[in-house]
Amino acid sequence: MADAPAPEALDVRIGIDIGGTFTDLVLSRGGRTLFVNKTSSTPADPGEAVITGLAEMLERLAIEPGAVKEIVHGTTVGSNAILQRKGAKTALITTKGFRDVLEIGRIRTPEMFNLAWEKPEPLAPRRYRREISERIAADGSVVTAIDLAEVVAVCGELVAEGVEAVAICFLNSYVNPVHEIAAAAAVREAFPELRVTASYEVLPEIKEYERTSTTVVNAYLLPEMQTYIDRLRRRIAELGIRAPLQVVASNGGMMGAPVAARLPVFAVASGPAGGVTGAASLSGGFGYGDLIIFDMGGTTAKASIVENGQAALVTEYEFRDGISSPSRFIKGGGYMLKVPAVDIAEVGAGGGSLASIDAGGLLTVGPASAGADPGPACYARGNDRPTVTDANMCLGYLNPEALAGGSLPVHRDRAIEAMRRHVAIPLGLSIEEAAQGVRQIANVSMARAIRSVTVERGRDPRDMTIVAFGGGGPLHALDVARILGVNRVIAPIMSGVFSAAGMLTADVEHNFVRAVQKKITDVEAAWLSPRLEDLAAEGLTVLAEEGYGDDGVELRFAADLRYVGQSSELTIPFDPQAILAAGFASLAERFYADYRSTYGYATGEPVEVAALRLTAIGRAERLAFQTAKVDAAATRGLSGTRMVHFERGMPPVSTRLMARGDVTTEPQQGPAVIESYDTTIVVPPDARFRADAVGNVIIDIA
Known about the structure:
Layout: E1 12-18, E2 22-29, E3 33-40, H1 46-61, E4 68-74, H2 77-83, E5 90-95, H3 101-104, E6 129-132, E7 135-136, E8 142-144, H4 148-160, E9 165-169, H5 178-190, E10 195-198, H6 199-202, H7 208-238, E11 245-248, E12 254-256, H8 257-262, H9 270-286, E13 291-296, E14 301-307, E15 310-311, E16 313-314, E17 317-319, E18 335-337, E19 341-342, E20 345-347, E21 353-357, E22 363-369, H10 388-395, E23 402-403, E24 408-409, H11 412-427, H12 431-453, E25 465-469, H13 473-484, E26 488-491, H14 498-503, E27 508-519, H15 525-545, E28 553-563, E29 570-574, H16 576-582, H17 587-599, E30 607-618, E31 629-630, E32 640-644, E33 653-659, E34 668-669, E35 672-675, E36 680-683, E37 687-691, E38 697-701
Parallel strand pairs: 1-4, 3-31, 4-11, 5-6, 5-9, 9-10, 13-25, 25-26, 33-35
Antiparallel strand pairs: 1-2, 2-3, 7-8, 11-12, 13-14, 14-15, 14-20, 16-19, 17-18, 21-22, 23-24, 26-38, 27-30, 28-29, 28-30, 32-33, 34-37, 35-36, 37-38
């Protein structure tokens, strides 16, 4: 009789993160041992790299497909569809008089003095927007009944024009969705091939523009996301894997693939959220205090914060090109998504970001990127323009022979030639000066993203620690830290694939909301209690459908509060039993404190409630970093020395090369270049470094 498999072999979970250059896979066996695989991304078909990486990993580790219990996936399909304008031909059916809500928006611009700025084109063009003679009053009463024959006739016209998806958003449907329910049912019955989204299914909240925009984005993404998820699930099944596919939501939690296919607007920021969730787990497990999250990949760099072990969340953000930030002060620059999301700022500065000279003769870096194909010049795949990766290659930071554990051959001479031809000669600089300039511009751009989630939120980055991950994060983190005045940087275990690893720490989360418009002093227990019970019942029902019983469930309540008359809210969490005992008005003091922390001041003026929220969490056995053990193959690297340029105008320094697995808990003085399969950590001469008990590398700046 064959030996029984080891217990950990029966519990295999895989996290997958698709980046601009690499698709990262992290496999957890028994919730402790971690294995990694990096595969070149396939932008034309992102799922191809996923399947290739899965097959390679299972074969290399001799794991039967049936042993895989769960796959957690962070996808950029939604964000790419918006950026590349490859979503569905989308229509909007709305109440008479509200056809132009998308253009009107908030009547704000993100750049006050930029006369060349143009508002993004609506995802539902005006010629595909139709008005219906129906009306619901603000109190939910029916003013004008809906004519379903009119709705079907209008949809027939749109279908004849080639429309693929329809968003239905009627005035005041957040109070009474009866017209939307009837219209959506009629359209689905008459045109079963048409993708339909009604606002009550996505965002039953006040604010007409935000609700309309979010519903339109969801409809726009439906065909792309549904096709991708259906194909990926089929391909995974063909490998013999029967495990459920979970998708990381924008708030860092997980949702089942069917939910993501139906509500893709909740997963537009799917990929970046996994790393923030992992960092929050890292903070709670090791007590490293408040953290700045710095994730630098091949195309972009992202920044966020973790305070008191919790990721910073927002209830809305705008998705756009350039620096994308859910700033409360800058609005109007992108597509509004009023959904729970990790508070992430993003800039087009990654390892593949292209360096060039603009029309004014100035050096610029990004947002254009060489991507995965052809990639940086040093990849020798057809691109001869320098990137940030090429700058790091020229300066000696990177292995001049190969990256990704030897699986990706590189050519340092190609990087030097690209830098010489496109930057050094035009600016009259040496190769090293040109490379330092490229690196410095990228560092400043990334520091700006960090400031947008710290200084602009009333937080002082000097009181925090940077957690750097992604393929390029540990390469640049120390320079970025100096710009911000931060004294400590942590490169977590599996830094280069940390977003994929972080996904394995996530719980299933579903969010529910009830619109409210009451002064906080008017909220009484007799009114509040049944509404909280209704929210709880809805959350428990959804979790039960996914197999979570009472023992694995947590319900978190919060309220959106604002000063009376304001149009923006702050979300304040609360414990139902405590708040019912103390009185709902007691939340006002917490609102004042949070307002002061965010905006720098607060008054004692009256407060009102805009919404009640519930986050229903399904908990299972998840990866815990404090007990994790990384496969030894992922921590190998070079030994010896290499000449590295650390400061502009100074000669190169002979620098020790170390494998990440050789870093001990004993503090050591820089300089050092620490290599592993997934990333490179650069320690300058004036910094000290050590590893903690599980292998996180901690670097302190003198």
